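Collaborator request, handled under Task 6.
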Amino acid sequence: MPPQLAIPAAGEPDLALDAVSADAFRRVMSRFSTCVTVVTAGGDKYPVGCTVTALFSLSLSPPSMAVSLKTGSRTLDHIRAEGIFAINVLSWPQRELAKQFAVALPRHRFKDVDFTMRAGVPVLVDAVANVVCQLTQEIAVLDHTIIAGVVASTSTAEAQSPFVLYEHEAYRLIR
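Structure tokens returned to the collaborator:
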């Protein structure tokens, strides 16, 4: 039988977990190269979206994805309301969109962004890949919520190279 992980009770401090600062953790995580994505959803007055690097394929049967979003984010609220979201893997020419979708006011995030609507959700044109998912589950974890969705549609742009982050630097992944 594998060893059990001891998880402290809510509110009970765990010195081993408190020993790592946010800055130290950020430095370590910067060593994980990752494609940069924009997660999008429909909105009341305008589409919504945010930059995301914490996501993964969840299952092949059925095909599904999981994404981590800050709890209370506008994008998460709209995904819950609509029940559908898109994951857009940014291409190298779209690298400036990472900052735009991270820091711009929500109503300005889609300014000058070429997108189409698919199943009621905005999909970024010229992204390396687009995955539209039907929301199936969410799990609150610390200050984030992990959402899972069954894949409803996909598309790829074979001619595009993805925008990759490593050590807070932008790279173009060349095939």
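The cover message to the collaborator said: "Residues 7 and 120 are 41 Å apart (CA to CA). The first strand starts at residue 34 and ends at 35. Please let us know whether this matches your experimental observations."
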